[in-house]
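Now for today's protein:

——
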Amino acid sequence: MSARILASGRGWMVQDILCRAGPETAAFEEQHRAVAIAQVSEGTFQYRSSLGAAVLTPGAVMLGAPGVCYECGHEHGVGDRCTAFHFSAAVWEEIVAAVPGARRSAVTRPQLPPLEILAPLFAEAEAARDENDPAAFEEIALRLAGAVVGILADAPKRAREPSARDIKRVTAIVRTLAAQSEESYTLDDLAGRAAMSPYHFLRTFRQVVGLAPHQYLLRNRMHRAALRLKRSQDEISAIAFEAGFNDLSTFNRRFKKVTGVNPGAYRAGTSRR
């Protein structure tokens, strides 16, 4: 098995886990050190823990909690691949406290079946993994944890409306991101500026703006770059770097994803095909 760290931050980590075990591979007992939420993207395996047993298939979600012992088996096939999110107990409790209606934080079951509510988040995670975009994972991790907390606690789906104070705080951050979109920000940093916990800030920002901070920042950077492409003859690489993109190929790929054409064609006025 190989585990590659995709991103990490205060109290959380995301790994790309590739397992090549098969029917002839002996299972051995391991122990979760943190709250674990792992989505199976390829393959199948048998998961047995003190929380119960389950067969995990593509789209299903493995759950674990600190101190829970478990073992994985591959009696029916070879290999699997998972995107695994890990959360410290402190961060998990912060998220539980911020999820409307959540009253308990314990992970009491070994897995979740493929659920429609989680599918978009895992799709974003796989895209971030494949595009080597570690900055995207901080928001994905917290949104995923909040969604799983709600499922485990049977919390009501209707979220509380943000308070006037929180709206004011988020609006101040929005103005900062709009004015200085070329700067680098972490979710933890932005939440600290707003005097809010990261999960509460992320949830409130999405309610107020309609986008997560990372997506909002990318939109601003793209808008700024698009204006300069039309208004100047500056080198595309210079425009990309000054907009906050440290890699030209990443800028080109994301620009085409948003506009349908590459930056050069956009500047030349080539229409989307």
Remarks:
- The mean pLDDT is 88.
- The first helix runs from residue 89 to 98.
- Residues 36 and 64 are 5 Å apart (CA to CA).
- The two ends are 43 Å apart (CA to CA).
